[in-house]
Amino acid sequence: MRDDFSSRIQHFAGALATLLPAPLSAPLRAAQTELRRSLHLAFRLATLHRRVVVLEPFQQATEGCLALRLPEGVRWGRPLSIPLPPSLADSGWRDGRPRPITVMPQRRASANVWFLHHGRQALCLRLDLSGTVELLRYRPLLRAWTTC
Q1: pLDDT single digits (tens) 95-147
Q2: Domain count, the chain
Q3: How many CB atoms lie within 10 A of CB 44?
């Protein structure tokens, strides 16, 4: 019952967030752009070269491996003060510590969840096995996750 109420509050806050737009902090906006560009490039390279491409944080770029660089002040992981998105509550993804994303030529990818945060704002990148990407942001004033 508590989870159902929490889910309804998140849904209501998400609807309210669409009516009350608020900009992302500049570093998170840059990180969001970098995430989207890097994923697009990884899928494009995998398709063009018909090879697996790995998108990996903390590494140097090498053949078949793209490195992801974050703007200064943006950190990996989900702070404990920020709740999980409702869609991830029972999924087993807790901390969002980044694991490498493997992109395959048929627009498939290893399922993964990455969290980034800057101050009280956060982003959640969710990638499923079919290569579908969902990017969410945490709105601290509403205490809700919304679609970017």
Answers
A1: 656 788 889 988 888 878 889 999 889 999 888 888 888 899 998 888 888 88
A2: 1
A3: 12
- Other Cβ atoms less than 10 A from the Cβ of 45: the count is 18
Q: Is the pLDDT of residue 83 over 60?
A: yes
CA–CA dist 62, 68 (Å, integer): 12
Coil/strand/helix, residue 83 = coil
How many angstroms separate the Cα of 28 from the Cα of each of 63, 130, 133? Answer: 28, 26, 17
Residue range of the domain that includes 104: 2-18+26-147
Q: Which residue has the tokens 């498939």?
A: 108
Split at pLDDT 50, 70, 90, the class of 50 is very high
For residue 6, is pLDDT > 70? no
CATH code: domain of residue 36: 3.55.40
- CA distance linking residue 136 with residue 139, whole number of Å: 10
The SS3 call for residue 123 is: strand
Task: Quote the CA–CA distance of 123 and 80 in Å, as a whole number.
Answer: 14
